[in-house]
Structure formats: structure tokens, C-alpha cells
Write a sequence for this structure.
């Protein structure tokens, strides 16, 4: 039988662009998440409570410049914008919801095949998934702190913009740092189970379990505080904004804990997805 | 085991797919067992009952899983972790992992994106493939509202979207109604005859494959038990005795009459006297002679069916179980 191609123009476009493939996954996640009413609702409520009120409050109160103290230092009767507890709590809640189904659903319904029957590497798949989650998470963890900083700078009465811009730079780092840690942690929990609900609750609960363990044992040795992810994030913010670690906390143990929370989720994630995608 | 050399339609001597002693096991369960096959250009059907190893073969062929032993070459290359080859191969899985919240268009654009396509060219290509599978009027609807046939078609569109040279279609007709099945069979035939894609398609229903191609590979318990032209395989199947159950009254009289038919090998009573099992060597001869016996002896038949209609029984004949 001979083949006659009838009225058919074959695809002759570029099929080797790696970034484009990763972008396709990022775009899908971003679009899916922002079309979810639950996520939009959580985003709006979290925005109002965590970001909008502090932005208004700090903008209307007379101030000379944007200072590190506004961002992180505890003040009598309240906390810094990022360390009052609300920011990390809502960020964690948001990460639990956003990341819970990213890998678990693929495990559940075998959507891995959708990706890995294409010219996609494990790394590309993970970068796409993490990138998509990072983009959504940044709507809460990255952009609002920048908006806060810009609003405060715009309404400052003093003329020292260098100090304010330095704090803005630190805020950029804090935003990326928080988004990365919570995203990679949430996606890691998602890769450990096929159940989306387990992944969502697991990400949220594991932070609290570590916090309780840290709280209980820090009574015996203050270094246990670094086990608590909330403390770990708060101390990291302090360092980024130029403050010192609490004197009772060992810098070595703190560094080790920080390295762990940065490296372990991505390592577990890669290993788990590679095992699944590359077959057995 | 039967071994029929396949004709090569395009005249090239390099097989499209070549498996040598391919084995894959999942713990103690064997997926493929020293599977050997050569597949050339055109449409080839892989036929076998559920659990025969069809999907395992497809997953190895597209590089999703690694065989435990043996070798497989797809278009001359090892598919394991071979992205270059993955770009040339399309796969339509047997299970449904489509997102119900997504529109057909969005699903296809995601597939295109995963192949590095974008922009107007991708939009144009999406239009082309939806036209090929006949979904041009449904493409903007949510997949959640699609019928089973439409879901199979959108999966099929996804597999041909990157204009792959070779398509693996795993049970593309499963769960579809007769109308959709007919339409899908026409689409699959056109993928080779009009679009020029080589196609390897699996099914557990031999007549379905028969409507798409005359070349089949029969697979059973992870092994290839026959391959070649369907007509030759049918002849082979016909060499083995068929069993027919007949139910009604006066079965003992019928049994006597049936023994006079030349193609009857044996007749035996089942649980009660109203049911007999007939073993025949040639179905056509038997059914040609049966009405005369029934009329002459004035017997009422309530039901009659073949116990080996299922492909499983055919395979058991072929492997002499």
C-alpha cells in the first residue's frame, strides 16, 4: 500500500525548546490555580488580613523612611509586618492549598504518562511544577511585601531613600526566600502521597508538629528553637534585614537547620519523581 | 507457535519496531515474557486479552519503563530515556487522565507546549488535528462534558498533535459506543492512509482490529503467540475445535442427529438433560447442517452460543493449554 498524504501540512516548528516546555507546565498550573474559586477566596482573605491592613496602617502613620524594624522587629503590642505571625501562617496555609495536588494528583491518576511520554526530562517536569507553584505563591509571599515597601517609601516624609531602597532590596530577598521554602516544602509533601487532602493537611500539620517539638524541647536546650520552622523563618528574616540571631541559638545549628529546609524538600522531590518517571 | 513473516508495505528492510527476548516483570507478576516481534510500516494491531502485556509493551516502546531483559529498538533506537525518540513518537494511553475542568483546546495546547510548540503555529496545528479527529465543534467545551468517544478522540488528537512519525494507540476504542467506535476506526485508518503516520494499535477485540488492518500480533501472558495476516490467523484458529452450547427440549434427540453431521467431533450433556455441549471442527459446515437436523426432528432450541467466542479461549487453543 502506498502512502498519499492528502491536504496535510506537517508541523515544522521548533520542537526542541526546553524553556518552552517548562513554561507550558508553569502556565497550566498558574491558570488552573487562579481559576479555582477556593484559592481565589483564600488569596483575597489572606491579602486583606495580612497585607492590605498593614499597608494602609504603615502608609498613613507618619514615618521618615522604610526601616528594617517595620518589617521584622517585634514592637510592644504587636510584631513587624513579616514576623507578626500572620504572614507566615497565611503563607503556609496558602502553600498547603496551592501545592497539595501538584504531584499527588499525577500519582493518583497516572498523569505522569501525559508528561513523560513526551520529550520531557524529570528536571523539566519538576521545574515546571515548582515554577508554576512559585508563581502562584509569589502572589501572596513576594508581591505584597514589595507593594508594602513601595507604599511606605512613597509616603515617607524623610529624604533618605537609600536606607529605604536597601530595605526594599532585603524584602525582595525575603520574598523569594519565603516563596521558595514554602513552595518546595508543599510540593515535597504532595509527592509523598496520592491523596490531595493528605498532602494539604500534611504540609500544614508538619510545620505545627515541628513547632510543638521545638517548643517543648527548647525548655531543655534553647537550640531546639531552630527545629521550629516558624522560628527558622523569623530568624532568617532577622539575618537578611541585618539583625543578629538570638544569643542563645547556635549559629552552626541554625545554619544546619536552614540548609536542611532548603535542600531536603527539593532532594526528596527529585528522588521521588525520578523514581516514578523513570520507571522501575 | 505460528510465525508468519510480515510484508513490508514501504519496501524498506529496517523494521519499525524490533523486540528481542523482551521481558518485564513487576515483582512476581510477569508483564512480558521473552517477547519477540518485528513490526514494519503501516497499521499493526496488537491483540490480546486484558493483562496480556499490551500496555507493558507500549510503555517500554515509548520509554516510560525499562525492560528487565532483552532489547527493543523503535525506529532503530533504544527508547529508554531517549528524548529525541520521544519527540518522534505519539502515545494515546488506555486510561483516562484528562482534566475535566480543561477545555479540549487547552488540553491540546498543553500537549503542544510540552513538545515545544507555541503561538500561531500551535493554534493552527490544534485546528488541524481537531479536524482530523472530527472534534472541531467541541474543542471549546470542557472535557468534563465529553462523551467517552469524544474523550478517546481528544486523546488521539493529543497523540498526533506533534506530528509524530509513529503512533502507539493503547485500546483507543475501549468504552466507546458503536457509532463512536466506527468513527474512531475510520480516523485511525486515515492516520496512516491519509496522514502518513505509522500506527501500532492495541485491542482485546479481534474484529475491531480487523476493521483497521490485516496485520496483527497476538499476545497472551506476555508472549507473542502469533503474528501476521489476520486471514492466516483466522485459518489457524479454525483448525482448532469449537465448543457450542445448545439449550432446549428433546436434547437427546438432537444429540443423536448432530452426531450425523460430519464436522461434529463429540456431543455431551451438561448439568441437566436440556443442555448439550457440541465440539465441532468446522463452524461453517456445522451451522450449515444444523437447521436440517432441527427441522427433521422437530426440536425447539431455546438458546445456542459458542463458549469460545472470547479471545481468551482462542489464545488457549493457540498455546495448546
Amino acid at each position: 500500500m502506498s502512502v498519499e498524504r492528502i491536504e496535510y501540512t506537517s508541523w515544522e516548528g521548533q520542537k526542541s525548546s526546553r524553556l518552552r516546555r517548562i513554561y507550558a507546565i508553569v502556565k497550566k498550573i498558574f491558570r488552573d490555580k487562579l481559576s479555582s474559586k477556593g484559592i481565589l477566596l483564600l488569596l483575597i482573605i489572606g491579602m486583606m488580613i495580612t497585607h492590605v491592613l498593614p499597608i494602609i496602617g504603615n502608609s498613613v502613620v507618619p514615618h521618615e523612611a522604610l526601616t528594617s524594624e517595620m518589617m521584622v522587629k517585634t514592637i510592644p503590642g504587636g510584631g513587624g509586618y513579616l514576623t507578626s505571625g500572620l504572614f507566615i501562617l497565611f503563607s503556609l496555609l496558602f502553600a498547603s492549598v496551592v501545592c497539595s495536588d501538584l504531584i499527588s494528583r499525577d500519582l493518583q491518576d497516572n498523569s505522569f504518562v501525559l508528561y513523560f511520554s513526551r520529550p520531557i526530562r524529570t528536571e523539566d517536569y519538576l521545574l515546571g511544577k515548582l515554577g508554576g507553584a512559585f508563581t502562584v505563591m509569589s502572589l501572596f509571599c513576594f508581591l505584597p511585601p514589595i507593594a508594602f515597601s513601595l507604599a511606605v517609601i512613597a509616603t515617607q516624609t524623610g529624604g533618605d531613600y537609600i536606607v529605604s531602597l536597601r530595605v526594599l532590596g532585603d524584602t525582595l530577598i525575603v520574598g523569594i526566600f519565603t516563596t521558595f521554602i514554602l513552595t518546595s516544602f508543599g510540593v515535597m509533601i504532595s509527592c509523598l502521597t496520592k491523596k490531595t487532602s493528605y498532602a494539604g493537611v500534611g504540609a500544614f500539620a508538619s510545620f505545627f508538629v515541628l513547632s510543638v517539638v521545638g517548643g517543648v524541647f527548647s525548655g531543655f536546650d534553647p537550640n531546639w528553637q531552630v527545629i521550629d520552622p516558624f522560628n527558622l523563618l523569623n530568624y532568617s528574616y532577622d539575618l537578611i534585614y541585618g539583625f543578629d540571631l538570638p544569643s542563645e541559638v547556635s549559629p552552626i545549628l541554625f545554619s544546619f537547620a536552614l540548609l536542611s529546609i532548603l535542600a531536603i524538600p527539593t532532594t526528596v522531590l527529585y528522588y521521588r519523581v525520578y523514581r516514578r518517571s523513570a520507571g522501575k | 507457535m505460528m510465525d508468519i513473516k510480515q510484508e513490508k508495505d514501504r519496501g524498506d528492510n529496517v523494521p519499525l519496531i524490533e523486540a528481542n527476548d523482551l521481558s518485564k516483570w513487576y515483582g512476581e507478576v510477569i508483564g512480558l515474557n521473552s517477547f519477540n516481534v518485528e513490526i514494519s510500516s503501516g497499521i499493526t494491531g496488537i491483540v490480546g486479552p486484558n493483562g496480556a502485556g499490551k500496555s507493558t509493551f507500549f510503555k517500554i516502546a515509548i520509554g516510560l519503563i525499562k525492560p528487565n531483559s532483552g532489547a527493543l529498538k523503535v525506529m532503530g533506537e533504544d527508547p529508554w530515556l531517549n528524548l529525541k525518540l520521544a519527540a518522534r513518537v505519539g502515545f494515546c494511553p488506555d486510561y483516562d487522565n484528562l482534566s475535566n475542568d480543561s477545555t479540549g483546546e487547552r488540553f491540546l495546547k498543553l500537549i503542544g507546549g510540552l513538545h515545544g510548540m507555541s503561538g500561531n503555529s500551535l493554534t493552527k496545528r490544534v485546528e488541524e488535528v481537531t479536524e482530523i479527529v472530527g472534534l472541531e465543534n467541541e474543542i471549546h467545551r470542557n472535557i468534563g462534558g465529553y462523551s467517552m468517544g469524544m474523550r478517546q478522540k481528544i486523546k488521539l488528537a493529543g497523540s498526533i498533535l506533534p506530528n509524530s512519525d509513529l503512533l502507539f494507540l493503547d485500546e483507543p476504542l475501549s468504552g466507546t459506543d458503536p457509532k463512536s467506535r466506527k468513527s474512531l476506526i475510520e480516523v485511525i485508518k486515515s492516520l496512516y492512509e491519509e496522514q502518513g503516520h505509522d500506527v501500532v494499535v492495541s485491542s482485546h477485540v479481534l474484529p475491531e482490529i480487523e476493521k483497521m488492518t490485516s496485520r496483527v500480533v497476538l499476545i497472551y501472558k506476555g508472549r507473542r503467540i502469533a503474528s501476521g495476516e489476520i486471514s492466516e490467523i483466522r485459518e489457524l484458529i479454525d483448525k482448532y475445535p469449537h465448543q457450542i452450547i445448545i439449550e432446549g427440549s428433546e436434547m437427546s434427540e438432537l444429540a443423536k442427529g448432530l452426531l450425523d453431521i460430519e464436522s461434529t467431533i463429540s456431543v455431551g450433556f451438561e448439568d441437566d438433560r436440556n443442555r448439550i455441549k457440541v465440539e465441532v471442527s468446522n463452524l461453517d459446515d456445522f451451522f450449515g447442517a444444523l437447521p436440517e437436523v432441527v427441522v427433521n426432528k422437530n426440536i425447539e432450541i431455546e438458546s445456542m452460543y459458542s463458549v469460545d467466542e472470547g479471545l481468551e479461549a482462542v489464545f488457549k487453543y493457540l498455546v495448546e493449554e
